[in-house]
Structures are given as structure tokens and as C-alpha cells.
Amino acid sequence: MHELGVTENIVNIAVAKAGEAQASKVIKINLVVGELSGFVPDCIQFYFDSLSKDTVAKGAVLHFESVPAEFRCRDCSAIFRPEDTLWACPKCQGRSVEVFKGRELYIESLEVE
Amino acid sequence: MKRIEVIQNVLEANDTIASRNRQLLDRHKVFVINIMSAPGAGKTSLILQTLTGLKGKLDIAVIEGDVASTVDAEKVQGKAKAVVQINTGNMPESCSLMAAMIESALKDMPLDDIDVVLIENVGNLICPAEFTLGEHKRVVISSLPEGDDKPIKYPLIFADADAVIINKMDLLPHVDFDIAAFRRSVTGLNPKVEVFQLSTKTGEGVERWCSWLLEQVKTNTLKR
Lengths: 113, 224
Prior knowledge:
The complex is a heterodimer of chains A (113) and B (224). In chain A, 26% of the residues lie in helices and 31% in strands. With 113 residues, chain A is an alpha+beta fold. Chain A has a domain at 3-68 and 100-112: 2-Layer Sandwich (hypothetical protein PF0899 fold). In chain A, a hairpin with a 5-residue loop joins strand 3 (70-73) and strand 4 (79-80). Chain B is of the alpha/beta class and 224 residues long. Chain B has one domain: 3-Layer(aba) Sandwich (Rossmann fold), CATH 3.40.50. Chain B contains eight helices and eight strands. In chain B, strand 3 (60-66), helix 3 and strand 4 form a beta-alpha-beta unit. In chain B, helix 2 (43-53) crosses helix 8 (206-220). The model of chain B has no long low-confidence stretch (mean pLDDT 93). At the A-B interface, helix 1, strand 5 and strand 6 of A face strand 1, helix 1, helix 6 and helix 7 of B. Strand 6 of chain A pairs antiparallel with strand 1 of chain B.
């Protein structure tokens, strides 16, 4: 739903980093996307192909590493997947939990030539 | 082929503008609340009740975010110190307000004459969670007809909220909404959150919300 602005940022970052490295072409962009972030990889790729067409990132492959959601129990520090709708910690049954993983959205690396 | 390590948050561009907004607001001692909810939960009604409840105590301006129309801005016009309508339908993103939109809306506001800006975000529980605007407090409204499972379905927006409002309490006899279960999910995710139960229709509980808001402004940014 909000991938256009985000994809603009991806193109801008890739072009800037490629420029710093004096690269002539970006081959691949490795992105890390959390399950809870609400970003749809296919949608980012769609915008990317159009936004990057006059840049050194044209034709680059976007590789998405998806990070599953994980919660951490504030009582016993156990890390668990938020299965179904039950958020109780599987270890101590505690109900105070924090989002540990799953909200990421960052560029991990670029492959250039 | 060469590999370049980047590790750069893609939302950084928005965050940079948001912190610029925050600096501007702090310089002018203006306290900003970002109000988020699903469509129809009662954002505009809460704003109207707040304008009435704090009349004479605080000078409040409103920024209305909607995909289209000015109906919300018309409702608050005359009651707020200033109103700016943002229509996101004309912008690259329509599902949430973003820091750059707030930056330009603030240019149209007499900041030195304002104590508080209430921002009504676009009705949506997903996208607004991702975009900070430069606000001091984030408020999420859930209304009884939506059901008590919203924090479980949309954890991020509740995890980052400073206050959660349960609205339409007058409908409690007519809907299956387990208040205790809702509160347990919200405070489990977010132990420091302030939870309010109120009805913007009957006005029940609105006073406690207004007192909280007044207290926040007094301890943070009050001009006078």
C-alpha cells in the first residue's frame, strides 16, 4: 500500500552507494523485510523496475530476505513465534511480550560492477 | 562483481524529515499528537470532543489527513485555531500521512499562537505505524464494533502507541467485545501505554482523556 515512496528510497540509496563505489551497474540489491512491516515484495519490484529505468540500478534484481515475526517474553526473555492468537510465553505463560523481530526494512548490501 | 555492505533503513528519509519537524515544533513549543485508527473508529469525533473539552485552556490546531474530500476539515473549521486538510489521493502514497506532508502543512500554521496540533491520520492500522511524523505522542483509537482482536492482528501500531482509546463504549451492551482481553493484549505488548475507555457520542470518559492531554502539554511544551 505504501511501497512507492519506499521504493524511491531504495533506488536513491542504491544509486548513491553505487556512485560512492564508482560502479557502473547495480546487479543485485539485498533487502531485509520483516513479516510485520506490511511491505509487499512483488509490489516493491514492480515500482522498482519503473523508477530505476534511467539509473545505474536499471535491471537490478531485488532479493528479499523475509524475517519472520518473533516476540520476546519480558519476564523470562524466551523468544517465540506469535502463533495463532495466543501471545502467552510458551515457557513461563507470561503475557508481557515485545516485538523482537519482524519490523525490519533495510538494504543489507548491493552487488555492483 | 563487487559486494557493498549497506545496512541502511529504507524509511530513513521519512525519519529525517520527522526529526526536522520535531525540532521546529519544539522551538515553537507546540505539542503534537498523531491520532491513528481504522476508518470510522472516531478520530474526527474525538478531535471535536477534545476541541470542546479544552476550549479556553489550550489553543488547538488540526491537520486532517484523508485520501479525498474536505468533510473532516469542514467539521472542525471554526472550532480549531487553524485547520489544514491534506488529501493523500494526490500524492504518491495515499494510505498514510508522511513526515514531508506534515512539514508542508506546518508552514501554513501560526505556530506561535498554537499550543497543540492534533493530526488526524488516514484511517488505516498498517501504514501509519511505519511513518513517524515528528509527533510527541502517538494515539490509537479502537472502537467496539471493530472487535477486541485488533492488537493481535496489527501489533506494531499498538506496540508503539503512547495512548490507546477504546471508543464507542455506549455500544457495549450490543457487541461482543471483551474489554479485559483487549486491555491484556495492549498492555502485554506495551506496558507503559495509557488506556482510555470513552464514548465520543455520549461524552462519557472524554474528560479523563482531556485532562491527560492537558497534563502532557503542561509538562512538555506549554508556552504560558
